[in-house]
Amino acid sequence: MKYYLSLPLLLMCLLVSCGKNNTTDYEELLSPLYTPEYASGFEVYSLDGCASTVIRSKNPWMGASGEYRDAFVRRGDEQPPKGFVGTVVPADPQRIVVLSSSYIGMLDRLGAVQRIVGVSGLPYVTNAYLRDPLNGVRDLGFDLNYELLLSLTPDVVLLYGQESANTTVTNKLDELKVPYIYFGEYLEEHPLGKSEWIVAAGELLDRRDRAIRYQHEVSSRYSRVREVAAQAEVLPTVMLNLPYNDVWQLPPKASFQTTLLTDAGSVPFYGSDERGEMQQIGMETAIEYLQKADYWLHLGMVTEYRDLPPALMARSSTIRPIQEDHLYNNNRITNDAGGNAYFETGPVEPDVILADLVSIFHPELMEHEPVYYRHISVH
What's the pLDDT tens digit per position in 285-321? Predict the structure, then answer.
């Protein structure tokens, strides 16, 4: 009889909340475990008396201010402490669904890409393992197929917040009892801030040390390449992008792209705002910039000079980068559907992207075969 009475007590002991005192305020239980050096969008906390940890995603969608979402990364049978508000995700998940291609790069670098069972937009993925039909990875579409999602029995969904809290998706995931966590690397303004999100992925995968070591190596290589670029005596000007519906977009001054270009020893044209979303300029303003620019980068799907829009080709004699044969596109690694590795593995390889750019702008300083960029020859 004692055995049967003690079993519920044993289970209660195993399923205890973290924290020595359940009356303690939740925030007081948190201690910084990893504070990013470059990323502004996440932090990792340990919990008093708990092996589990918390990943806090801060302002995880465009335009968020003062928002955060906590994910309790559960180890063993531990339960979140009193006062916790957020999602509960298992540590070391074996079945993962990713809703952004950049998460694929993170998991690949951590040796966990084979845990991915579902993605959003599979035709646009460049990873060979995920694209191989024999491996059974399913495409959930851009409008999530929840029936398919549920059939995959994921341990966690790596969620992509775009312009709001995305409550339609999160409410449905809550209803289906599918664990999820917000990742917001795409919002980072510094290239090393993007790559540093690999530490959040490492925390989730119980590979924290491996992820931190990877980030340190990337940061060290990035710094060395930036030091090489700093030796340049002449800084070329750079124009970006192509028009869409006669509207040209440029990144703000504080952005991933402008930081990369500046660190590579160039002077990019950018939008009028300090930070935020891509900013629009008129066609005539863009042509004016092109008349001054030394280089023209990021040309959409263009792989040959003749692919440029006819309206721009008609003005080629006034576009300086065309006259100088200085057109480069960041689509050297693509698949048949137009999926681009620049957006998949590039976020965790800013050091490689930087080396590509320095070798383009300052070949006298760095001998390097570009990985992500191709030359669009005008001849």
Answer: 999 999 999 999 999 999 999 999 999 999 999 999 9
Q: Which residues contact 220 (CB under 8 A, 6 or more apart)?
A: none
d(CA 169, CA 188): 23
Round to whole Å and give the CA distance between 157 and 180: 4
Instruction: Give every strand in the sheet of 138-139, ordered side by side.
Output: 138-139, 116-119, 96-98, 156-160, 180-183
Please, which residues have CB within 8 angstroms of residue 12's CB and are 6 or more apart in sequence?
A: none
Does the pLDDT at position 273 exceed 90?
Answer: no
Half-sphere exposure of 270 (CA within 13 A, CB side): 21
Q: Are 95 and 113 in contact (CB under 8 A)?
A: no
| Maximum Cα interatomic distance, the chain, rounded to a whole number of Å | 94
- On the question of pLDDT at 4 being above 80, the answer is no
Q: What rounded mean pLDDT belongs to the chain? A: 91
Radius of gyration of the chain (CA): 23
What pLDDT does 18 receive? Answer: 75
Closest CA to 345 of 42, 146, 147, 102: 102
pLDDT tens per residue, range 90-145 = 999 999 999 999 999 999 999 999 999 999 999 999 999 999 999 999 999 988 99
- Give the global pTM: 0.92
Yes or no: say if 212 and 33 are a contact pair by the CB < 8 Å rule: no
pLDDT at 277: 78
Contacts of residue 355, Cβ cutoff 8 Å, sequence gap at least 6? 225, 366, 368, 371
In DSSP terms, 29 is beta-bridged to none
Picking from 83, 33, 28, 23, the residue whose alpha carbon sits closest to that of residue 54 is 33
